[in-house]
Design brief:
2 domains, five-stranded mixed beta sheet, 323 residues, 36% helix
Length: 323
């Protein structure tokens, strides 16, 4: 048996196949809507055909009122000089930010958090029975990490309770192949060596960022001490966001697609793998309950139980290849 034949026996899904299916669904959805797309990338919207001051990313949002809400939030943030970043590729059919806007936006506008609450309760997420508000692109007003320059730590969606406390921190991933690594390493300014035991060898620690101090305070470094490579090299985003969640007394929740092999998946025989199970295993036992995962498909199933969302949820499934 050669390698090509053997590859067909691999028990897990392959990301390339997942990505290809998503792109086809996105291209078909844009075509059905009559939107003009990039000539070589039919899953990506074009500037051509825009009316007046219309922005192309809005055509990637299913409900007009959700697009208007996002634009309003962005404009308010600009006036207050606070962060509300609209991603560069929000007009891309597989944008995880666009997917989150399409999935969570209608729940916010209609004040219906019951689908989220029911799903999170089924995962034993603390505080799921008291969700009164959801906020996109949350940035902690307290500068816990001493991020006085560059892009501060933010998270896609935060859920607040009736007391106004941020309790559940949701990171949305869709077609991505990773959580996101350290830019210092990517820029060639780090050799990737594990800095534990010599923290000043880490540029980020040297300039005053508090990530490693918080990693030590929460005893996360215990399982990493003997590693040769720095865990931030490939998984920087996960630890920043997880630290933010636990420092706020909350839970980190990953929202991802069950068809993707990247973050959490199972083989036909039930074997589990993915970045989230792997990274959770690196945490101390007392912190593992502070990590949870939900899938887009699970949330869609909960939303479908509520009649008030019948005007958009099928279109969501069609757009993202779930029909």
């Amino acid at each position: 048996m050669n390698s090509r034949q053997k590859a067909k026996q691999w028990p897990f899904a392959r990301h390339k196949e997942f990505s290809s299916a998503l792109r086809k669904s996105a291209a078909n959805w844009f075509k059905d809507k009559g939107f003009i797309t990039h000539p070589k990338m039919p899953y990506c919207l074009s500037d051509e055909g825009l009316v007046g001051s219309e922005q192309k990313w809005k055509r990637n949002i299913i409900l007009k009122e959700v697009a208007e809400y996002i634009e309003m939030q962005s404009n308010v943030a600009k006036k207050k000089k606070i962060s509300f970043p609209l991603h560069k590729y929000l007009h891309h059919g597989m944008s995880s930010q666009g997917m989150a806007f399409n999935l969570i936006g209608p729940l916010i506008l209609r004040g219906d958090y019951s689908p989220l609450a029911a799903l999170l309760k089924s995962k034993n997420v603390y505080g799921a029975d008291d969700i009164t508000e959801a906020i996109f692109e949350y940035q902690d007003p307290v500068n816990r990490f001493n991020e006085d320059a560059g892009q501060p730590t933010s998270i896609d969606i935060v859920l607040n309770n009736s007391q106004g406390d941020s309790i559940i921190f949701i990171e949305s991933k869709f077609e991505e192949r990773e959580f996101g690594g350290c830019s210092v390493f990517k820029d060639g300014d780090c050799d990737g060596r594990n800095p534990i035991g010599n923290l000043d060898s880490c540029y980020l620690h040297f300039i005053g960022r508090q990530y490693w101090n918080m990693m030590e305070q929460n005893e996360i470094t215990s399982s990493l001490r003997k590693d040769h490579l720095c865990i931030f090299m490939a998984h920087y985003q996960f630890f920043r966001e997880f630290l933010l969640a636990i420092e706020k007394g909350g839970t980190f929740v990953l929202l991802s697609d069950e068809r993707s092999p990247v973050f959490k998946c199972k083989s036909d025989n039930g074997t589990e793998k993915g970045l989230l199970p792997f990274l959770t295993e690196l945490l101390p036992d007392n912190l593992r309950s502070k990590v949870a995962s939900i899938t887009i498909q699970e949330l869609v199933a909960e939303i479908e139980k509520q009649n008030i969302h019948g005007d958009w949820i099928f279109d969501f499934k069609r757009k993202y290849g779930m029909t």
